[in-house]
Design brief:
Chain A is an alpha/beta fold and about 250 residues long. In chain A, about 40% of the residues lie in helices and about 25% in strands. The chains are: A alpha/beta (about 250), B mainly alpha (about 280).
């Protein structure tokens, strides 16, 4: 990460409390342009909540979120916050564990929905853009199918194309391969790798796929009980972690 | 082999459909015997059949207008019940509670007889709006009444759409209204159509209550002739059979519609899992 380039994502002191459960305890995170950050850690450590705070699907209890220069400061909902929230969401793409494709829309309709509805793009232009996104993830031939007729791997690739069609500044992946049959994981990881290495997409990925992390991530960040306790390039972190908790987790999963 | 085993072995030779047909035939025979036991005046029935049948178009018209009014009211009611706006939520909560909690026949009388009494407070040109004919009153009452019931159907339909759908739409930057209109409602309406068909069938029968304020529909005609000649059962049997026939026809079309709607959601054709 170039130190002088403005980060695409910048979290400061992000806390998230559900009831009396403090899931995030004041997290700071910067993600630079073109950087791929993998967040890893035990389930329940707050990884997904952290990711969902970036596009404000979870609203932080306190702290601030900044994406592509749009700043959101935690606080009660008002017009300004809601507008910042939508601005941030239209600049981020999110890929969910269980795809969440729109079942009543065909593949291409899934992909052009947001450009047309949110960005008011003319349908013909959105179609061209949508087809480019579908080609990028290798499912252009399925454009007129309905999601129910796709395999899990195809569904997730369409979900990636749907997010790409908004031309986001950063892509967020929330355990994108956890719901897939083992033989379908590879095709999704290959698309993500291509996005990271060929297209230079800025990405924040929550995953248990340590092989992918070592190969693709610029930085890996270890989450433990609501804190990011250690981060660094894979080559340094794997085998050279300073914190015993990071070392123990890596030894267990690798 | 005992008797039961032999019967079961015999029974296995015939298809379920054949056995079902036999059951239906037996039911009709029993109905025919029952009909004969009443010693109905069939000549009288045949004589007045055309007069009663002439009420069918009005019955269908009232039902269709009623459902056309009920659907938008139900949609508003459902959105209101799910709304975080206290005014909208409160009004629709009252609407659903009050209308479902009072008899349809009372509502019909309130609209037909009660509204005109309020006309005196309205400015002159608007007074006409308070004094409604029997058909308009009936359609209004049916629409408002069924709208309240169907609001609960639509609400369940909206709630049946998974939260993941809402999150996916919001993650793409869609507003709450866009999410509702483009993502949630289309899926909610699909699951709401079969129960809405049921409501329509129920409405065909409840349209008979509109006859009580003097609409010349099916039930009104049947009871009028019945009272006039002191042969109430004869004409009411005719009315019952016509209502049954009407609802059966609509049930048939409802079944076809449901199968057609399921189509987009069923994996069919070749290779759903092909890669």
């Amino acid at each position: 990460m170039g130190t002088e380039a403005r980060p695409v994502v910048s979290l400061r002191g992000v806390r998230k409390v559900f009831g009396d459960n403090e899931v995030l305890k004041g997290v700071n995170l910067d993600v630079g342009p073109g950087e791929v950050v993998v967040i890893f850690g035990r389930s329940g450590s707050g990884k997904s909540t952290l990711l969902r705070c970036i596009n404000l699907l979870e609203e932080p209890t306190s702290g601030s979120v900044e994406v592509d220069g749009i700043r959101y400061e935690a606080g009660p909902g008002n017009r300004r916050r809601r507008s910042a929230m939508r601005e941030i969401r239209s600049r981020t793409g999110m890929v969910f564990q269980d795809f969440n494709l729109f079942p009543h829309l065909s593949v291409i309709e899934n992909v052009v929905e947001a450009p047309v509805t949110v960005n008011r793009m003319p349908r013909a232009e959105a179609d061209r853009l949508g087809m480019r996104s579908l080609e990028k993830v290798g499912v252009a031939d399925k454009k007129d199918e309905y999601p129910i007729r796709l395999s899990g791997g195809q569904k997730q690739r369409v979900a990636i194309a749907r997010a790409l069609a908004m031309q986001p500044e950063v892509m967020l992946f929330d355990e994108p391969t956890s719901a897939l049959d083992p033989e379908l994981i590879g095709e999704v990881l290959a698309v993500m790798k291509d996005l990271a290495l060929e297209s230079g997409t800025t990405m924040v990925v929550v995953t248990h796929e340590m092989g992918f992390a070592r190969e693709v991530a610029d930085r890996m960040a270890f989450m433990h009980e609501g804190n990011l306790i250690e981060e660094g390039p894979p080559a340094e972190l794997v085998g050279g972690a300073r914190d015993p908790r990071t070392r123990r987790f890596l030894e267990a999963v690798l | 082999m005992n008797i039961r085993d032999r019967l079961e072995a015999r029974s296995a030779h015939y298809s379920f459909r054949a056995k079902l047909a036999v059951v239906w035939i037996l039911i009709f025979v029993a109905l025919a015997v029952l009909f004969a036991a009443f010693r109905f005046d069939t000549a009288f029935m045949l004589q007045w059949l055309p007069f009663i049948l002439a009420g069918v178009p009005l019955t269908i018209l009232i039902s269709i207008m009623g459902i056309l009014l009920a659907v938008p009211l139900a949609l508003l009611g459902a959105l209101g019940r799910l709304s975080r706006n206290p005014v909208f939520n409160g009004i629709s909560g009252f609407y659903v509670s009050f209308i479902r909690g009072t008899p349809l026949i009372v509502q019909i009388f309130f609209i037909y007889l009660g509204l005109p009494q309020l006309a005196q407070y309205a400015p002159g040109p608007l007074q006409g709006l308070f004094i409604l004919g029997t058909i308009t009153s009936g359609v209004l009452a049916l629409g408002i009444n069924y709208g309240a019931y169907m609001a609960e159907i639509f609400r369940a339909g909206i709630q049946s759409v998974g939260h993941g759908q809402v999150e996916a739409a919001q993650a793409l930057g869609m507003t709450r209204t866009q999410t509702m209109r483009r993502i949630v409602l289309p899926q909610a309406i699909r699951v709401s159509i079969p129960p809405t068909g049921n409501e329509f069938i129920a409405m065909i029968k409840d349209s008979s209550l509109v006859g009580i304020v003097g609409t010349q529909e099916l039930f009104f005609r049947a009871s009028k002739i019945g009272r006039q000649y002191f042969q109430n059962l004869e004409t009411l049997v005719i009315a019952a059979l016509i209502y049954w026939l009407l609802t059966s026809i609509f049930s048939y079309f409802q079944g076809r519609l449901e199968r057609r709607l399921a189509r987009g959601y069923v994996r069919e054709g070749g290779g759903p899992h092909g890669h």
